[in-house]
């Protein structure tokens, strides 16, 4: 449909934004890496045609997060929001990019601002709440049409976590997301005591063969430490190093999440924490310099 729109009018910026979003989703869930490049080209085209198209800015920010440019996206969106303070799409986008940058209070404030402007605007609040350890509220914020509630339920030790895993795995299969179903089944098997650490590690590996979803990768890191034994711990450190390099630095979660406690005496883990701390300090400074405190009404103490 979007391609037909562009055939009719190649200058129609919203169609370029939407086709870029389609390419990004294909890349994320089907493993087509070339689609990431097509998505970025489409977003640039949309913004060239209409620099004030917040929908394109939001979709482009999601693509930047996939490619390690969350800080760049955060700075751009904060500056845009300072000029378009009544645009819920910009604040909804800031929920995700601020979380990736480890600015959890800013992420929560962005959600509140987006919902004040448009009560129905979707945001990624669930994942921010998970990093804050607010698992019950995260369950309430999960989209029941997507295989997501199992994450906060499993991490939070909810008594119905296993049942939700089985339900969400079937939902993923119905959406033809077979690799997601495999991942959720692996968690369910461990919760049920029906799998061994090696089987869990092997099942989780499929998640790392696709274009990055760094929220999901971090949950896999937690699972590998919790359920994967020695092999899982070693792999968790490797993946954690990679996601920090890609700009995912929720430093508070790295230092405080109890599932990571078995790693805390490892020199390689300590080195990753230091890298994350330095990256987090960098994004804190960038947030303040871009005017984030004024835009979102929250400050950050530079580490």
How would you describe what is shown here?
The chain has 18 helices and no strands. The protein is an all-alpha fold and 303 residues long. Helix 4 (54-66) packs antiparallel against helix 5, helix 5 (70-83) runs antiparallel to helix 6 and helix 5 runs parallel beside helix 17 (267-290). The chain is globular and about 55 Å long. The mean pLDDT is 91.
Please give the radius of gyration in angstroms.
Answer: 19 Å
Task: Provide a count of the helices.
Answer: 18
- Average pLDDT taken over every residue: 91
Principal-axis shape? globular
Distance between the termini: 48 Å
**Which percent bin holds the helix content?**
over 70%
SSE layout and pairings?
Elements: H1 2-8, H2 13-30, H3 34-49, H4 54-66, H5 70-83, H6 88-100, H7 104-117, H8 125-131, H9 135-141, H10 150-155, H11 161-174, H12 178-192, H13 197-204, H14 214-227, H15 229-245, H16 251-256, H17 267-290, H18 292-296
Helix pairs in contact: 1-2, 2-3, 2-4, 3-4, 4-5, 4-6, 5-6, 5-17, 6-7, 7-8, 8-9, 11-12, 12-13, 14-15, 15-17
């Amino acid at each position: 449909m979007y391609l037909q729109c562009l055939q009719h009018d190649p200058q129609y910026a919203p169609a370029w934004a939407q086709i870029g979003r389609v390419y990004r989703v294909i890349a994320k869930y089907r493993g087509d890496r070339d689609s990431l490049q097509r998505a970025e080209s489409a977003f640039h085209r949309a913004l060239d045609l209409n620099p004030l198209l917040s929908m394109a800015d939001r979709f482009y920010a999601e693509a930047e997060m996939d490619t390690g440019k969350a800080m760049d996206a955060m700075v751009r969106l904060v500056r845009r929001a300072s000029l378009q303070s009544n645009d819920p799409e910009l604040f909804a986008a800031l929920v995700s990019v601020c979380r990736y940058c480890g600015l959890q209070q800013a992420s929560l404030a962005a959600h509140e601002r987006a919902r004040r402007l448009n009560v129905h605007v979707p945001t990624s609040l669930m994942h921010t709440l998970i990093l804050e350890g607010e698992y019950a509220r995260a369950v309430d914020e999960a989209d029941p049409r997507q295989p997501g509630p199992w994450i906060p339920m499993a991490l939070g030790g909810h008594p119905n976590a296993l049942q939700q895993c089985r339900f969400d795995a079937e939902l993923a299969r119905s959406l033809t997301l077979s690799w997601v179903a495999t991942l959720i089944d692996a968690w369910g098997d461990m919760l049920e005591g029906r799998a061994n650490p090696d089987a869990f590690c092997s099942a989780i590996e499929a998640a790392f063969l696709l274009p990055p979803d760094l929220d999901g990768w971090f949950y896999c890191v937690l699972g590998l430490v919790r359920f994967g034994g020695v092999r899982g711990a070693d792999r968790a450190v490797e993946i954690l190093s990679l996601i920090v390099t890609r700009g995912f630095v929720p430093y508070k979660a790295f230092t405080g999440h109890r599932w990571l406690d078995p790693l805390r005496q490892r020199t390689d883990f300590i080195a990753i924490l230091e890298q994350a701390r330095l990256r987090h300090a960098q994004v804190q400074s960038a947030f303040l310099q871009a005017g984030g405190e004024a835009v979102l009404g929250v400050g950050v103490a530079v580490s």
